[in-house]
Structure formats: structure tokens, C-alpha cells
Specification:
Elements lengths: L3 E5 L6 H11 L3 E3 L3 E2 L14 E2 L2 H9 L3 E7 L2 E6 H9 L3 E5 L2 H10 L4 E6 L3 H11 L4 H15 L7 E4 L3 H16 L14
Parallel strand pairs: 1-7, 1-8, 2-7, 3-4, 8-9
Antiparallel strand pairs: 3-6, 5-6
Helix pairs in contact: 1-7, 5-6
Length: 197
């Protein structure tokens, strides 16, 4: 059965890396491409990484109720287009949404059947290290993201599942296990022999 998986957590926690591994491991799972008003970063492609929309186009899409959820984050707007999710579900695929906490709440209200997973850091200091090592944000932007992260961490208890990203391989195995259990796909025999929990 096709399902919607909402994967959230503070900026820099490693959501994108974990989701990339998840998509490689679980057949029939697809990533919903978010829309945003921010400018593309180097190497990002419209329609592959994000749907890059001008602010007035984003406003028009809001007015037309084209979004399941939308939020402002670090001065830019992000949203999930209904068509992105609907088309994939109709094709029989389960869908992953990589979104912020406020967006996850909107999806929860609109789609109570969605499976919500919070990715947590092992400690707050690790977020700063990860954001600085990415080299994509100024120190001011990193400080702003960390302020938001404090508020997001306080919401962790709202989510059905929490995965602590203290070790990438272990966290990826745990996330895969949650998704496979929800959609009824057993783990491949031998796929995670190295994991003992």
C-alpha cells in the first residue's frame, strides 16, 4: 500500500543523506520535490532538486491552494505541491517528504495517515559542526538555523518515530526498518547482516 512518509528534523541533522540511502534501499519509494523561493545553490537543478519559484508565483500557488504545506524558513519559503504527492501515489509509489517541522504539522493535519519521522542529532554541537562543514551558509545564517533548531528539537515528542543520527549506518538501517515495516516490505535477507540491535 502506498504511503506518505514525512521526514523532518533540524537543519544540518543529515536528513538528505539518510533519505538518499533510503531511496537506494527501498523499492517503489520516491522523493517529493519541494518548491522554494530561494535561489539555487551551485549544482542544483530546477525540477530535480527543487521547483524554484519566484515569490509572486509562490503566492499565486498558495492562493490556488496548490500546496499541502508551506512554510517560511531562514527568510525563504518552501512548500509541497499537492500534484507532486498525488501523481506519485496514483502511480503506486510511496512518497517521502523532506520538510521542516512546521510543514510536518500541516501535513499531519491534512493527511493523518502520513507516517512522521523526526531525525534528531546526538547533541546540539553536532548541528553547528555539520552546518559549518557544508560551507553553504554564512555564520549569520548558521546562527539563525541553530535558533530555529532549538525550537524544532522541542517538538520531537510530537512525532511517531525518532531516529537519532549519531552513526550514519545505524541511523539509515533504523529508518529503513521503519519504512519497510509501514509498507510491508521485508528486509532483504543479508542486507543488514552487519547490524545487531
Amino acid at each position: 500500500m502506498s504511503k506518505v512518509f514525512v521526514i523532518t528534523g533540524p537543519s544540518g541533522v543529515g536528513k538528505g543523506t539518510l533519505i538518499a540511502r533510503l531511496l537506494e534501499r527501498v523499492p517503489g519509494l520516491e522523493l517529493s520535490i519541494s518548491a522554494t523561493t530561494r535561489e539555487p545553490r551551485e549544482g542544483e537543478v530546477d525540477g530535480r532538486d527543487y521547483h524554484f519559484l519566484a515569490p509572486d508565483e509562490f503566492d499565486r500557488r498558495i492562493a490556488a491552494e496548490d500546496f499541502i504545506e508551506f512554510a517560511t524558513y531562514s527568510g525563504h519559503r518552501y512548500g509541497t505541491l499537492r500534484s507532486e504527492v498525488r501523481n506519485r501515489l496514483e502511480e503506486g509509489h510511496s512518497v517521502v517528504l523532506e520538510i521542516e517541522v512546521q510543514g510536518a504539522r500541516q501535513v499531519r493535519a491534512a493527511m493523518r495517515e502520513s507516517v512522521q519521522v523526526f531525525i534528531a542529532p546526538p547533541d546540539p554541537a553536532s548541528l553547528r559542526r555539520r552546518l559549518e562543514s557544508r560551507g553553504t551558509d554564512s555564520l549569520e545564517a548558521i546562527d539563525a538555523r541553530l535558533e530555529v533548531a532549538e525550537q524544532e528539537m522541542a517538538a520531537q515528542g510530537e512525532f511517531a518515530h525518532t531516529v537519532v543520527n549519531d552513526d550514519l549506518d545505524r541511523a539509515a538501517d533504523e529508518l529503513e526498518g521503519i519504512v519497510r515495516a509501514e509498507i510491508g516490505i521485508p528486509l532483504d535477507s543479508g542486507a543488514n547482516d552487519q547490524t545487531t540491535r
